[in-house]
Amino acid sequence: MDNNDKITEIINKITKGYKGPDDTIIKIKWLGDLIHSYQRYLPARVTEKIKIDPTAKKIEGERRFITVAFADLSGFTALSETMDAEDIANVINDFFTRMVKIV
Fold it and tell me: Which one of 20, 39, 53, 61 is most buried, by most CB atoms within 10 A?
């Protein structure tokens, strides 16, 4: 097995869930886009570990003391059925921004 075959094998392994065309360049771009989208939701140290070894089975967690707030917005379901997704997100973000200041 030469180096090109090894590289192709690794790329196929780390892009296992990819459903698009069987093109190595497209797969690499897809993987980069996937990692970029994770960066919105995961800490930088986690996405860096994914970049180093995308096949890693475990990324260490950490214990923290946290505060959790639960809220029931009266009439929210009926209201949300009449709004676009972006407007709903704005309402929720506004609510939590105000609540965090109180808490």
Answer: 39
Structure tokens given for 102: 């109180």
- 22 contacts 30 by C-beta, under 8 angstroms: no
Task: Give 3-25 pLDDT, tens digit per residue.
Answer: 778 888 887 777 877 888 888 88
Q: CA 5, CA 10: separation in Å to the nearest integer? A: 9
Report d(CA 12, CA 85) in Å as an integer.
35
pTM above threshold 0.90: no
User: Cα–Cα distance between 27 and 54 in angstroms, integer?
Assistant: 13
Report yes or no: 66 and 50 within 8 Å, Cβ to Cβ: no
pLDDT, tens only, 26-67: 888 888 888 888 888 888 888 888 778 777 666 667 788 988
Retrieve residue 14's tokens.
Answer: 């780390």
State the burial class of residue 54 (Cβ atoms within 10 Å of its Cβ: 0-12, 13-18, 19+): middle
